[in-house]
Amino acid sequence: MCRRNDAQAALPWCSDEYPRPISRLLSGRVQTYGRTGKPIGTREMENSDRTFLPALKATAAAISLAIISCMPTTAFAQDPSSDQYRVERIYSGRTELPQFKGRDKAFREFRTVIRDGMKDGVNFAGQYSVIQYGCGAGCSFVVIADNRTGQVFSFPRGGESNMYLTLKYARDSRLIAAQWASYDDKACHLDFFEWKDGKAALVSSRKFGVIEDCYKDIKDNLK
């Protein structure tokens, strides 16, 4: 009798309907035994193969299909476009600096680089400045400052978890792309975010083959 656990219950080769060959090396030759423990002859083996092997192949194919179906999809059929996230107007007033002693004190340590980054005015989403600064070899942080209110916001990518970070954004669009490498899965990632009301909402993601792909420009990886 073929004993089965729950995980094996659906496997056709673990049933009384199919012989279960077990090969043993005896006296320099292979002797095959069936489920009854008696030796199987050549003709019986041929009959067994006619039922066992097709079932094995069919089940293996079904398992492979199930594994593929359960794999997460990280690549999207079409990447988002800046045109889909156009802003209605671009702020042209005076740049308001952050309140590093009050509301924006969490960013006080980087006040100089943030102030310098805001000097050129709006470069993203109609009223914001994207400011990227280094934290070591291949490492960088990103903040986004509002030129109209002076408020500073964190960006969800950066630091040692997102190495070789490259950004792509436009002055008149809320879409920002972030390309980064992960040493955990040894891959290059590309995320698209929509910036709205001081928050970055993930629109789509894709993963490339290896870390070295992150040395390329974003537009080259999108080809």
List the helices and strands and how they pair.
Layout: E1 22-26, E2 29-33, H1 42-70, H2 111-118, E3 128-136, E4 139-146, E5 152-154, E6 163-169, E7 175-182, E8 187-196, E9 199-207, H3 218-221
Antiparallel strand pairs: 1-2, 3-4, 4-5, 6-7, 7-8, 8-9
How many helical elements? 3
The radius of gyration over CA amounts to 30 Å
What profile does the largest beta sheet have? Answer: 4 strands, antiparallel
Order of helices and strands: EEHHEEEEEEEH
Question: Globular, elongated, flat, extended or rod-shaped: what is the shape?
Answer: globular
Structural class: alpha+beta
- What fraction of residues sit in β-strands? 25-35%
How far apart the termini lie comes to 58 Å
Low-confidence stretches: 1-36, 60-77
Query: What strand line-up does the widest sheet have?
Result: 6-7-8-9
Report the helical percentage.
10-25%
- Calculate the mean pLDDT score and round it: 78
Number of domains: 2
- What's the count of strands? 9
